Amino acid sequence: MAVLVEALSAVARRDAIDERYEGGWDGFVSDVPNGTLCTDEVIVRVGFMHPADAEPYAVLLQRRGLRFLMNGTAIDFATLDQQRGIVSPCDWLEFARIPMDDSGGSIAVCWFFDEPRTAGPGLYMKCDPSMPVATPPDWEFEGSLSQQFKYTPPDEMEKKLRFLRHEDGHDIFLDLDTGEERYVGRTK
Fold first, then answer.
1. What are the 10-residue block averages of pLDDT along the chain, 188 residues in total?
2. Contact at 8 Å (CB) between 184 and 170?
3. Fewer CB under 10 Å: which end of the chain, C or N?
4. pTM of the complete model
């Protein structure tokens, strides 16, 4: 089984949460700052749309007992990007995109992988397009970040987007190229 990867994701090993996280599974769940948690019972994913929300969460995970990087390699949790995949080397995760519909739509997913590798991590090994995928409650492909993903690099934000307002947990921007509103979910 796999878990959905959208925007920026922190993916933790469930065994590490049970063994090392202050308060165990219940403590972990109570610390999740938004509604993006999904799990396949082996790995757990929490997502963020903005680095300013993802970074403090990674710090919280470490303060509560999970190990992030050791010699540059992810130990108890890893960070993933919907477009680029696994950000730091991680020998227990794989990442791929799997088709969602006949229109060419796809979703990014990751799954626990602890078998011997012949080519190295992150090379899309053993991707079964029909594998079940854990998603947050009420998630649907239609209207999701997977279907409608748009990224504006931070150095282009002032040229391409104008902040309009903060509403219902979202920063709302005007896309100056299209005239459409763009939404960035925030945990604060």
1. 94 98 98 95 93 92 97 96 91 88 82 74 58 91 78 69 73 74 66
2. yes
3. C
4. 0.80
